[in-house]
Amino acid sequence: MDRAPGPDPVPHDTPQPVPQDPPGTAPRTAAQAAEPPPAHLAHHAGGKHEHRWLILAVIAVAQLMVVLDATIVNIALPSAQRDLGFSDGNRQWIITAYALAFGSLLLLGGRIADLVGRKAVFIAGLAGFALASALGGAATGFTMLVVARALQGVFGALLAPAALSLLTTTFTDPRERAKAFGIYGAVAGSGAAVGLLLGGVLTEYLDWRWCLYVNLAFAAVAMIGGARLLHPGAPPDRPKLDVPGTLLVSAGLFCVVYGFSNAETHAWGDWMVWGFLVIGVVLVAAFAWWQTRAAHPLLPLRVVLDRDRGASFLAMFISGAGMFGVFLFLTYYLQQILGYSPIKTGLAFLPLVAVMVVVSVLTTNVLVPRFGAKPIVPLGMGLSAASMVWLTALGTGSGYPAHVLPPLLVMGLGLGLVFAPAMSMATAGVAAHDAGVASAMVNTSQQVGGSIGTALLNTLATSAATHYLSGRRPTPEVQAQAQIHSYETAYWWSALFFAVGLAVTFVLYRRGRPAGSHLGDGAVHM
Predict the structure, then answer these.
(1) Whole-model pTM above 0.85?
(2) The pLDDT of residue 41
């Protein structure tokens, strides 16, 4: 028998002058309700913060900037390559530099937010991201652009966990928390598609450099809002930094992401692929062992061993692997087979974004509080798998309204059922001094999953195209069919990813409503 997780504990650094009265207790008097929070707790926004919805808007803008930067540069890459004159072999480093720094430093960034204070780290991350973006936009050569992208990843690793942990500690009322995470999950899940659209508009009508300069606008809005609305200070019981753990996990994640990134340009038998993957796995395993021995672990096992949180981290990992790869191949299909412009390609993804936003809000406000995560997230995984299978039917004669749009809508429905509840459950019930690192695990799971999925799907698709062309005359028609075959292979593998996600989340998530939901109190579940 597993007991469903209880209501979110009061964050140690969150003012809670009027905690929620448990059922059956007498309501607080007016004098008690009016009692101000203790001075040492007044430094951080709480669940009853008068500006909490404005804080959500600020956090959403910052998160959108970080997420869309993973795809906005993809659209600008051909123009940047022509302008700066770097080779096809070097082109991947514009993407990889960001992914390496971001993916390997997220857990450290989350712990720094717990140590220093979320407002300070949030503002510092925004400022650094903006400066790195300005450096990249002004790049005069390949090296300068790669350095700027790596710096974006470093500051993004500070910013993303701080943003999510701020959301976690700002919204502690279950009803409001559900709404907030629905909106946040929709932003995080649809950021990649928004990046494609924005990248197309900026590249076509302005210049590829504006795909980086645009971050200055996002950062300025979020910095002004954050400076005015967020309370300064660090948790009074802040943990110490686990230096050995930090080194082990940062190096391990770097090697894993780097190994899978190399798989896009090297054979799997190349030591640049398997060598780094083996080293990365060994280092991550050593990190896991060290966390059982460290006095002040970087990632306390209590954060990851809860069944619902573990299921949520795996859900983010698997959906990241399937989603990022599909955005890539569907973009190729729309542009190379259907002949869409970058802007038209971005617009083609908007229905998916719209469905995801609506479903994410509905899921966290109505479905999860009523039924729990167990039926909802696995259903989302199943619908996502079905949309991948549907996409395998696309051919050279397919049209957007009849053949592309329906599976896109199903994908939006599926991902909307996965992202928001997984993010909310991954950070629910975490003490304030662990909120940063728990939030970092959400981002790490999605980022590493995306890196692995993109590399695997790209390799499998390339092999499928090569095999299809073997023994055939490379006429334009045959080459187009080879591309279609490669995309089809990627969609089938994505469907497999999501099918595994269905099984994993169905087994791990507890049954029944989460305890502390606004529709009733938790009970004991099987």
Answers:
(1) no
(2) 39
